[in-house]
């Protein structure tokens, strides 16, 4: 997912392929909600950990510093909220569960854990010396849970792989779909993708207007 270091990450992401003459560079897409559902069924304790453990995302570059802390799984306060505000998806896709509002997964922008986050200090000594055992156990639980989640997100059977051709655009839910790409050779070819984002509220507004106009 992109821009998890801002307060309100965009709901939709668009990738438009302008040039693609290199070898490699296939786009990869994985439904993180599917991984969440699987981990919830197989390991409810891992699911609970990923709902509450605070993870910081950061962009610090070119005189800019954006940073937000949020859990990997965000839940809604009520079924009504997710029913009225969720981004519509392909009818063939599984619907969002009432309790899940968004999934946050962006390892390249995950920052070091904050000191005293969650009310305790993160130091190597607490693992080496056995101090603050409860807090050390929380971290071990988190590491176990996140390794499990990573395996599910990257599982080959759950990844859609496509080589985008020039003129092709893909639109996906930025709060649900994890995306990456294969390595590509930059010698003897070009690869140029332009990206754009659409705010969830703007998308819903336009969708409601179009629905009203077509009645």
Describe this structure in words.
By secondary structure, the protein is α+β, with helices and mostly antiparallel strands. The chain has six helices and ten strands. It has a three-stranded antiparallel sheet. Strands 7-2-9 form a three-stranded antiparallel sheet. A two-stranded antiparallel sheet has the order 3-4. A hairpin with a 2-residue loop joins strand 3 (55-61) and strand 4 (64-70). Helix 2 crosses helix 5. The chain starts with 11 loop residues before the first strand and ends with a helix.
Task: Please identify the oligomeric state.
Answer: single chain
Main-sheet strand order equals: 8-1-10
Portion in strands: 25-35%
Rg measurement, Å:
19 Å
Q: Stretches where pLDDT falls below 50 for ≥5 residues?
A: 82-89, 118-130
Q: What helical percentage do the residues reach?
A: 25-40%
Please report the total strand number as a whole number: 10
Instruction: Spell the H/E element sequence.
Output: EEHHEEEHEHHEEEEH
The number of helical elements comes to 6
What gap, in angstroms, lies between the N and C termini? 35 Å
Principal-axes geometry comes out as globular
* Largest sheet geometry: 3 strands, antiparallel
Mean pLDDT: 82
Find the structural class using helix and strand composition: alpha+beta
């Amino acid at each position: 997912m992109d821009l998890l270091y801002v307060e309100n990450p965009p709901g939709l992401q668009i990738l438009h392929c302008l040039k693609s003459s290199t070898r490699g560079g296939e786009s990869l897409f994985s439904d993180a909600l599917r991984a969440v559902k699987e981990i919830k069924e197989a390991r409810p304790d891992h699911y609970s950990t990923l709902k509450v453990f605070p993870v910081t995302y950061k962009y610090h570059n070119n005189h800019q510093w954006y940073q937000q802390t949020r859990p990997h799984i965000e839940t809604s306060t009520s079924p009504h909220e997710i029913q009225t505000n969720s981004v519509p998806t392909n009818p063939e896709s599984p619907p969002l569960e009432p309790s899940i509002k968004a999934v946050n997964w962006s390892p390249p922008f995950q920052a070091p854990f904050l000191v005293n986050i969650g009310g305790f200090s993160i130091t190597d000594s607490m693992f080496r010396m056995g101090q603050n055992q409860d807090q050390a156990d929380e971290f071990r639980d988190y590491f176990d849970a996140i390794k499990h989640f990573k395996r599910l997100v990257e599982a080959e059977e759950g990844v859609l792989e496509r080589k985008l051709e020039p003129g092709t655009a893909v639109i996906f839910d930025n709060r649900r779909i994890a995306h990456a790409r294969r390595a590509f050779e930059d010698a003897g070819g070009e690869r140029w993708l332009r990206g754009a984002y659409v705010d969830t509220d703007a998308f819903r507004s336009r969708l409601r207007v179009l629905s009203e106009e077509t009645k």
